[in-house]
Amino acid sequence: MNRALVHAMSRPTTIVKDPARLRLPPNYQPEQSGAFSWEQARKQLAGLPAGRGLNIAHEAVDRHVMAGRGDKVALRFVKKSGAPEDLSYTTLQRRTNRFANALRALKVAPGERVFSLLGRQPELYVAALGALKAKAVFCPLFSAFGPEPITTRMSIGEARVLVTTAKLYDKKVRPIRAALPALRHVILVGEGAVGADGSTLAWSALLDTASDRFEIPPTSPEDPSIMHFTSGTTGKPKGALHVHGAVVVHQLTGRVVLDLHDDDVFWCTADPGWVTGTSYGIIAPLTCGVTSVVDEADFDAERWYRILDEQKVSVWYTAPTAVRMLMKAGAEVPKRFDLSSLRFAGSVGEPLNPEAVWWGAEVLGLPFHDNWWQTETGGIMIANLAALPIKPGSMGKPIPGIEAAVVEKSEDGKHVTVLGAPDVEGELALRPGWPSMFRQYVKEEERTRKCFVDGWYLTGDLVKKDADGYFWFVGRADDVIKSSGHLIGPFEVESALMEHPAVAEAGVIGVPDAVAGNLIKAFVVLRPGQTANEALNFDVLGFARTRLGPTVAPKTIAFVADLPKTKSGKIMRRLLKARELGLPEGDTSTLEGAAT
Ligand code: AMP
User: Which of 465, 498, 519 is at the close of a domain?
Assistant: First the structure.
């Protein structure tokens, strides 16, 4: 183990960092930081000139240029070839101004939705920040989604504009465009034919003819900014709507949790199709004025170490699945690279095994700092802070301004009781009111309302809090599945499977996996007259993959005669899972066919 940075009090409960050996003093020392207020945190931001409000894109881009930092590299893209492409804050300002002007010319009104379906390429980042300048609501979609998740999300979000590539458009959107009546403009990035019939527009032509000067209109912190889709156990995905005021949390957590200092080179490995890739792959680092690295390629252990080495990454924010894949690649690979620039590593998205934290300490020379948040919270809420000891396996403590508790819901779901004693399992609840809290699931009043009970926001996660105030993840209170860091709603997968002509019913669960956390498994009941065999299994798997894309589709399918259901007809996924894993079946009194 690398004793230069950490020493173990007693493995595996606590890692105490030796302050004398940290390369930079942490930005935030809880015991010395005094009283916290959101007003104070807001003062760390510039605000629009002449008191015209608070706009994310101004904080992320324009204010750095106005302060004379325009030449600094804002975004460094590492192309698939490995070559870097830099965008300075000034270049980013000009390009985002052009895109904002283009949207205005297309008569996109404030609050209308601009979707992107792009890989991690410069245009995605320009579209995000340009849309925010024009006060449109930006909605990034993961480029590996199949046509089904794309249609659902663009319909719920009433997409006005889509920015994508000709290849993705032809493959995934053109066939479903008729089902998207609100969609007015499709803007195609890069090479490829633009429809002579005017059905698509060329990004380059639009931007070339637009002015690179743009004045951001007055923006209230309550104006909508970004919509991210998240999954529930039942029903369609939910569009969680965020506001411009969220940038207060992005800036704060960039400094306090990720410990960003002015000269840092930061790398968030998440894709902006998921909330981490937007909040921490775009907004937080730019708002903190650092250089942010974006890798355009997919995971590859050697490539990742090379990026850490060549780009001299000092602060790294990644996810447990990636850490486990690096561990699998072996401890020899990092030895071939110079990782001496790295001084802080964070992880989010799934439970981070204590072994992974220790592996970081021993092999990379610094432990991973796990932290917790979700789409609805908009930013990090609970964290192992740079200045505090790490408890491997724990998500850490609430950040300043956040009140978190372990609660129990009453049976009717209308009340909660706070469980004050340490080490008691219950649902994680947060006191509403932090600036990056989602404001609603669009067009889903009932589902929004259900999250707020007795003055608490209920997260859907089961946790414990120890006597030192550290939170420990136990599991989900519902049936949503985390697979390779992606939150997947079983209902969406089941619905797609049921569109296969041979499928009568499907029940979907996550099966624990050492690397991905969970793998999606579907139990399928066939229609009468269909025969369960390998060819059909293969066919249904392929069908799901084409519809849903590789991330969301099941990895395995089992044909079964029937599915366990409640008396009211709901699939008991909990029971499917218990049976799959050979665990006790628990309370089955509501099971269809059970004695009443
Ligand atoms: P998403 O909304 O897609 O970001 O997913 C949020 C969910 O991911 C949370 O509700 C948790 O279930 C899980 N999650 C996020 N961070 C952690 C963490 N550090 N440890 C355990 N689970 C996590």
Answer: 465
Do 404 and 273 lie in a common domain?
A: yes
Residue 8: what pLDDT? 43
CB-based contacts of 576, cutoff 8 Å, min separation 6: 507, 509, 523, 563, 564
- What is the position in ligand 1's atom list of the atom closest to the CA of 352? 20
- Reported as a single tens digit per residue, the pLDDT across 354-371 is 999 999 999 999 999 999
| Cα–Cα distance measured from residue 488 to residue 311, given in angstroms and rounded to the nearest whole number | 33
Question: Are residues 344 and 306 both part of a single domain?
Answer: yes
271 lines ligand 1 (CB under 6 A): no
* pLDDT at 403 exceeding the cut of 90: yes
- Over residues 168-173, mean pLDDT: 95
Q: For residue 278, what are the CA distances in angstroms to 119, 227, 271?
A: 13, 10, 8
Domain check: are 219 and 349 in the same one? yes
Rounded-to-integer distance, Cα 200 and Cα 162, Å: 10
* Cα–Cα distance for residue pair 63/18, rounded to 1 Å: 36
Q: Do residues 84 and 170 share a domain?
A: yes
Residue 470, pLDDT > 70, answer yes
Let me know whether 507 and 457 are in one domain. Answer: no
For residue 484, how far is its CA from the centre of ligand 1 (angstroms)?
11
**Ligand 1 touching residue 395 (CB < 6 A):** yes
Are residues 219 and 324 both part of a single domain? yes
Query: Is the same domain home to 489 and 445?
Result: no
Q: Which of 409, 442, 465 is the last residue of a domain?
A: 465
Mutate to test the pocket of ligand 1, among 317, 381, 461, 464 (most ligand atoms within 8 A of CB): 461
Calculate how far, in angstroms, residue 476's C-alpha sits from the geometric centre of ligand 1.
Answer: 9
Task: Identify the weakest region by mean pLDDT among 14-18, 19-23, 273-277, 386-390.
Answer: 19-23
Q: Is residue 403 part of a domain?
A: yes
Contact assessment for residue 406 and residue 395, using Cβ atoms and an 8 Å cutoff: no
Distance 349 CA to ligand 1 centre (A): 4
Same domain, 189 and 128: yes
Q: Write down the pLDDT at residue 12.
A: 61
- Assign 22 a pLDDT band (cuts: 50, 70, 90): confident
